[in-house]
């Protein structure tokens, strides 16, 4: 057996050096804005001291950090779209600075790895090609930065601490530059049955973000963390564990049968689920506790109640006591009656609640994103200015769905033309993405081509695909395509044979 340390003194010295190194790293421009709930000593104790690994994810994370901060300083933005195809990601380098990857969580780290490896290949191919030519000839060759930072969807991070750690580690090892993680509930991410989102308690969301940050720190990675908040228009919450969420939980203000009982009765009578839900909510007098108090209190009594609960965290039991003292009566409010068959509590979202969540999450991450599937002017303004009131230099991200009519959000055609630059300049939304091109755009183009190919065959293919592709292809001075692997394969053979592959000085 070989010993790792010659003696405990050597071990202590190595550990203290690791602690000092971590503390110095946390003071760099890239890291100093992060507020960590743990010490450098704790992170050092979780590292492989004496066996340092460097991750490409750190390099790409620092690169993305520079890109986004440069945009923020200039009031400009990066606009990109989602893909899972390495070839498409390679072509994106012609016009964009980043690549977005989303989809099934189990697959995303492996997709990121495939795209990152493709980026490495094309960067390698381009480098050796350019080195074959003298300086004058290189001006006619491609000089593209293929190493676009990859931003990936980490979804809910698998929720559990260890599951989240494993997922994050896989992303870092894949070469990702930034991941985003949200506050949606595990196993309840459904949007196709006419219902809204189910979010998790604030404390659980913060624990997810802390877990991501801890994993980055253990790995020594400068990978970026995008805190995505999905509570905008959320309809349910998975638990009432956190008193910070209590003001927004809905309860029945009338003594009625439970929502689950109403659903079961509706099934027996053949009544549609959504109709049962709306009828039950009306019958139950669904309200937040504050609304329930207001409904039974005089104006003076309600002012007294609000004065005692405002601007502080007050759990429901304490709210009940304050309300009873103010009104002289017990306010009927039952948040158990509205629970769904899956155990969710009903939730009343508000923009202030979304802002509060984003503000609490901000110190753990680098960028903030409030998911607004139907962005209207007021919500866009209120959210971003609300967060910026606390963090004036905050970097923001925003994602656009493919089916939203912006005119319904109050935007004129002229405003839509300058929409991207306006929200970058006014709110600091420096990273903007259309996530679903990977399915929507690619499916559309494939479907259109399939129909055209059946109708016109190779004649149509040559006209619409092959000829334009050939005409747009980069070639060297001999007319040979440069974007293929032939040059790189030739270089390998030449080097093995001892032949020089660079131009003479």
From TrEMBL:
Cofactor or coenzyme needed = Mg(2+)
Which top-level group of life is the source organism from? Eukaryota
The record's InterPro entries line, in alphabetical order, gives:
Isocitrate_lyase, Pyrv/PenolPyrv_kinase-like_dom, Pyrv_kinase-like_dom_sf
State how it assembles.
Homotetramer.
Q: Which reaction does it catalyse?
A: (2S,3R)-3-hydroxybutane-1,2,3-tricarboxylate = pyruvate + succinate
Listed name of the protein: Isocitrate lyase
Q: Name one GO biological process term.
A: carboxylic acid metabolic process
* A Pfam family annotated for this UniProt entry: ICL
What SUPFAM superfamilies does the record point to?
Answer: Phosphoenolpyruvate/pyruvate domain
- List positions binding Mg(2+): 153
Q: Which family does the similarity line name?
A: Belongs to the isocitrate lyase/PEP mutase superfamily. Isocitrate lyase family.
One GO MF term on file is: isocitrate lyase activity
Enumerate the UniProt keywords alphabetically: Lyase, Magnesium, Metal-binding
- Which residue spans adopt a coiled-coil conformation according to this UniProt entry? none
Per the UniProt record, the source organism is: Karstenula rhodostoma CBS 690.94
- For this protein, what does the record note about how its cofactor is bound? Can also use Mn(2+) ion.
